[in-house]
Amino acid sequence: MNMAGTTTDTATAPVATNDDRSDAIRRFYDGAAVRLTRDYVYGNARVSCQYRFFESVIQRDAERILIVGVGSGDCAHHIATRVAPQARITAVDISPDNVAISKKLFAHERIEYRMADILRDPIAGSWDHVLLPDVYEHISVDERSKLHRWIAESLAPNGRLLLTVPSPFHQGALARADKGLQPVDETVTVTDLLSLAADIGGTLTRFTYVSAFHTNDYMHALIERGADRYTLVSDDKSTMQETDGRNTAIRGFGAGLVRSLKLYKWSQYLRQRHVRKHLSLDASDIDADRYEF
Prior knowledge:
Elements: H1 18-31, H2 33-42, H3 45-57, E1 64-68, H4 74-83, E2 88-93, H5 96-105, E3 111-115, E4 127-133, H6 144-154, E5 155-166, H7 168-177, H8 190-199, E6 203-210, E7 218-224, H9 237-242, H10 245-249, H11 254-278, H12 283-287
Parallel strand pairs: 1-2, 1-4, 2-3, 4-5
Antiparallel strand pairs: 5-7, 6-7
Helix pairs in contact: 2-11
C-alpha cells in the first residue's frame, strides 16, 4: 500500500528459510568433496594443525567420539588408528558426497559414517568427545543457541568439546578480499567461545592462536565439563610454534631434506593410488590446482 492508501502491485522477494540455507550448504560441500580428497593426497597445513591439536587433547582411553563435519573421512580414520584406539566414532557430514567418499576411502570397524545436518537431524547419544573441525563458523549466529542446547544434552558430564575455527583476523582478510567465504561463514571470537562454554556448562580450558597459512589465522579451543572453573585458560605458545605450518615446512638441509622429500613424494604417490583405487577419479581430478579451504 502506498502513501495515498491505494494498493500497488510489487514483486515480493522470496525469503530464504533455514531449510533453503541448509540445502545451499549441502550443495556447496558436495561440490567441494573432490577438493577435500586432494587435501588428503597432497596435505593441507590447516588440517595438519588440526590433527596435532586433536592428538594433544583427545584422551587415549576415549570411548565415544562424535565428529561433526568429517569431510573426506581422513580425520576420523586418523583418530581411530592413531589417537583413540578403543573409541567408537560416529562421523557425520551434511554432504552425501562426503559421506560416500569417507565410506570408500576410510572404512573402519569402529567408525560409523552418517549423513546429517546437525541442526535439523541431531544425533542421539552421549559423547565423551565432540569435535567441530572448522564447523562452528559455519553455524549462523541466529542458530547457535540450537547447537548449544544439543551439545549440552549430548556431551558427557566430564566430556570435552574441541573446536578449530578461523580467527577474526583471517575472516576479516577474506571479507576484504571478497573471496574464500562460504555460504555461511561467521566470525568467531574468544567471547563467543566463552558464551558457548557457559551455555553447555563447561569451561574454556585451552585456547591457542595457530599459524597455518598466515600468522594467527586459526584458533584452537578446548571446552571441558567438570573442569576446575578457577583454572586459567592455557594459551600454549609452544604449541603455536609447533603448529606453525610455515615453520614446519622446512626441517633441514642436505641429505635430511632429500630424504624428507623422497618420503613425502612416496607418501603422496601411495595416497594417489588409494584414492584412484576406491573412487572414480582420474589423475586430472586429483592433480588439479589445490586451494586453501
